[in-house]
Hints:
InterPro entries: Sig_transdc_resp-reg_C-effctor (IPR016032), TF_LuxR_autoind-bd_dom (IPR005143), TF_LuxR_autoind-bd_dom_sf (IPR036693), Tscrpt_reg_LuxR_C (IPR000792), WH-like_DNA-bd_sf (IPR036388). Residues 139-196 form the HTH luxR-type domain. Keywords: DNA-binding, Transcription, Transcription regulation. This is LuxR family transcriptional regulator. By secondary structure, this protein is an alpha+beta fold. Helices cover 45% and strands 15% of the residues. It has nine helices and five strands, in the order H-E-E-H-H-E-H-E-E-H-H-H-H-H. It has helices spanning 7-13, 38-46, 54-61, 79-84, 119-135, 144-154, 159-166, 170-184, 189-198, and strands at residues 17-24, 31-34, 64-67, 90-96, 105-112. Strand 1 (17-24) and strand 2 (31-34) form a beta hairpin. Helix 6 crosses helix 9, helix 7 packs across helix 8 (170-184) and helix 8 crosses helix 9.
Amino acid sequence: MTELKSSDDVQLLAKNGYYIALRVGFAFPLEEVNALPAAWVDHYTTHRFMLHDPVIRWIYANTGAIAWSGIDLPDPMRVLDQAQTFGLRYGVAVACFDGNREGQRSFGTFARSDREFERAEIDALHAYVVKLHHAKAPPTNLTKAELEALKMVKEGQRLKQIAHTLGVSEGAVKQRLKNAKTKLGAQTSAQAAAMVGEFGLI
């Protein structure tokens, strides 16, 4: 199986839909892609399946990749049986955690209706999620001064206020924010501040 490079490649494998959550912390993922059938998402949400879904329970207790048929956990609400009626007959669960101090894990669940996923396909999906997980890792190259300025931006302080509080020129603050935006790939200081907030760095 060749490397999966894009969501289009994933869609070719997971013909009936998939869901990927990246860097899930205490509650919410840093980023998510929900390409599952809308009718299934509505049914799943309405019946609050997440707490009872054996796939999700496996994901939070393990790392690696497994076919849904290999998950040996109770399914009292028959989530997997009901998924089949929406075309999600065969699936794969993927979970990765790299021991990061934020406790963030990434996972994916992928489905098709025609056959079980082959081992090489399962491995390729696992590698794809792991790659995305690492790509969303918090940057380690932000300086204390840059983080300090971003924290003040997040608090709603203006450039002049930040410069006064830090005892530096407005130009110095602008440079710190510019450096931080470059490192984060952010368009604006507000976006950069939001990103480091999501990473738990401020």
